[in-house]
Amino acid sequence: TPYPAHLDADFPPLKNDLILRVARGEDVERIPVWIMRQAGRYLPEFREERSKHDFFTICRTPELACLVTLQPIDRYEGLLDASIIFSDILVVPQALGLEVQMLPAKGPHFPEPLVDPSHLARLKKDVNVDAELRYVFEAITLTRQKLDGRVPLFGFVGAPWTLMAYMIEGGGSKTLSKAKAWLGQWPEESKELLQRVTDVVVDFLVGQAKAGAQLLQVFDSWAGELSPAQFNEFSLPYIQQIPTRVRAALREIDPTLAKIPMVVFARGAHYALESLSTPEIGYDIISLDWTMDPVASRKRVGDNVSLQGNADPSLLYAPKETIKKEVAVMLEKFGTKRRYIANLGHGMHPDHDPEHLRAFLEAIRDVSSERNS
Ligand code: 1CP
């Protein structure tokens, strides 16, 4: 059975819409902030839950996914302006029929990765995301209720290229040499794989918006391993299908759903900033990694998209005074209470000190209110 569509009226009223206003290009009274990987292993309360349950059991149990999604929101009450549903980008390869395990300390592991194009036959055709990924939709609906309107809720997916990379490498990799070998050896079959992943990713984002997600982020975490030409051939064509197709499907259900803001994070793809921010593609927010200069990036994208980012995650290892100083520099460079969302340039590390994240969040709050007064 199809998962039911949920509209704003089905949920508690939103009390903090700063991020939604930034996505629409409206002025805000202070700079909003959320953090990639804000739920996770750096939090003792997460490790406690994790000691009791397997990683994918947490993802597949809506009450547990909701619980860990809310952990950073509760701990940093009033300091975070968005939540992101607890899940993983690798639930999409699972929905396509591949087994994925989460090994302690090692991370994701595919016992049987795709070795050559004959293995495309192992992937499910016509994936029914309402059945395969219903647990994510249930987690989103429950979490949106439990958030009680405190902050908006992000849904997310991995970008087709990044998912292809994991499906072939079978886990994390330094060079992605197997996945990149496919691009040269089997370009047409690579594109078939990318297209099949894209089709599932589109349905999955539509389902997350229907379930109650209020923003959607696409993570192309491995974009930076591609040359500009490879990116233009094997990543961009798929990333750029997503907003139009997702919004068209949502419009059929309800026009208000189709307005959902969409974010793209193509880590390391500094050359792609202009192409990703083209209005025809339809991303409202571009998330920058920490290697990008805010001032130069703003010049390159113009004034019609919002930027998100981009402190080096390693800043959180520095003393709190250094964190505060660097935050002031970052906000100065992004220089505006329009079209900017503070974040790190990539996710939290497992060995980050939660109190240093608090210092980062407080600094954003303090600096952005000082500049307002
Ligand atoms: O608050 C949150 O953001 C938590 C939800 C979340 C998200 C958005 C998790 C939980 N994973 C992700 C996205 C994700 N997963 C990405 C894109 C963002 C990024 O680049 O960081 C990627 C690349 C993955 C794949 C993945 N899953 C990795 C990286 C491995 C590598 O190649 O270096 C790892 C370590 C995981 C496992 C994972 N996912 C999430 C958590 C908390 C964990 C730790 C697993 C554990 O508890 O054992």
Automatic annotation (TrEMBL):
It comes from the Eukaryota. PANTHER family: METHYLTETRAHYDROFOLATE:HOMOCYSTEINE METHYLTRANSFERASE RELATED, UROPORPHYRINOGEN DECARBOXYLASE. Residues 32-41, 154-170 form the Uroporphyrinogen decarboxylase (URO-D) domain. SUPFAM superfamilies: UROD/MetE-like (SSF51726). It holds the Pfam family URO-D. Pathway: Porphyrin-containing compound metabolism; protoporphyrin-IX biosynthesis; coproporphyrinogen-III from 5-aminolevulinate: step 4/4. This is Uroporphyrinogen decarboxylase.
